[in-house]
Amino acid sequence: MPAAPGLVLNPTASVGEGVQFGVNVVVHDGVVIGDGCQIQDNAVLGKRTARGSDSDEPLVIGAGTKICTAAIVFASARIGAGAVIGDQAYVRERAQVGDGSLVGRGSAIDNDVVVGARVSIQTMVYVTGFSVVEDDVFVGPGVTTTNDNTMMRQDRAAPIRGATLRRACRIGGGVTIAPGVEVGEEAFVAAGAVVVNDVRSRAVVMGVPAREVRRVSDEDLLERWR
After folding, report:
1. Is 218 helix (H, G, I), strand (E, B) or coil?
2. Which end of the chain, N or C, is surrounded by fewer C-beta atoms within 10 Å?
3. How does DSSP assign 150-205, residue by residue?
4. Residue 167: how many other CB atoms lie within 10 Å
């Protein structure tokens, strides 16, 4: 492994073959980095939470993944093979990002989120805790998901419900999704919508609050565009 200026590599970390490190990278204890990964300048891998709520599981990064400049990926997260975690992105503890998925610049994947394979999460997106994003979903820039209707005015034992974005749905730029909302498979949410109710499969919704205006045509399904 070639020397990298300012690299801080914990001796308990595991580094695969052909990994490239940028300047001033920090790799904390127990991190597992697969073969052929690229870790760019000022990235921090395996960070622990300020409140000490981490599990004992290490951060695991799959082969061929790129962790871009100044990204932070917490301990106990799982990043799939060939994924891209963009500049200044933030992936919290126990989050999972699937194979070949993209997390765009400045986006945040909160704790206990599951992101499937081949997902495209664009710039400055917030995926709130306990959300599920299935395979082949597109999430446009500036999308915000939420998980607490009371904004911390409920019993701590009450369940937190993030968004559920089903396979191949598309979420336009600037959309806000209320807690617990499910967007169905192959649905289309127009830019700027505020989604407060579930969206059925293949529905096209828009507006504030979002309402169904038509159906996604057969010609616009993902299988036609692979």
Report:
1. helix
2. C
3. TSS-S-TTSPP---EE-TT-EE-TT-EE-TT-EEPTT-EE-TT-EE-S-B-TTEEE
4. 15
56: left (phi over 0), alpha (psi -120 to 50) or beta: alpha
Cα–Cα nearest to 127, from 159, 190, 155, 85: 85
Q: Which fold has domain 1-118?
A: UDP N-Acetylglucosamine Acyltransferase; domain 1 (2.160.10)
pTM of the model: 0.94
Give the other-Cβ count within 10 Å of 51's Cβ. Answer: 6
* Number of Cα atoms under 13 Å in the Cβ half of residue 69: 2
223 pLDDT higher than 80: yes
The conformation of residue 219, written as its DSSP 8-state character, comes to: G
Tens digit of each residue's pLDDT (9 = 90 or more) over 94-126: 999 999 999 999 999 999 999 999 999 999 999
Task: Report, at the CATH architecture level, how domain 132-150+161-226 is classified.
Answer: 3 Solenoid (2.160)
Residue 54's pLDDT is: 58
Q: Are strands 84-85 and 66-67 parallel, antiparallel or unpaired?
A: parallel
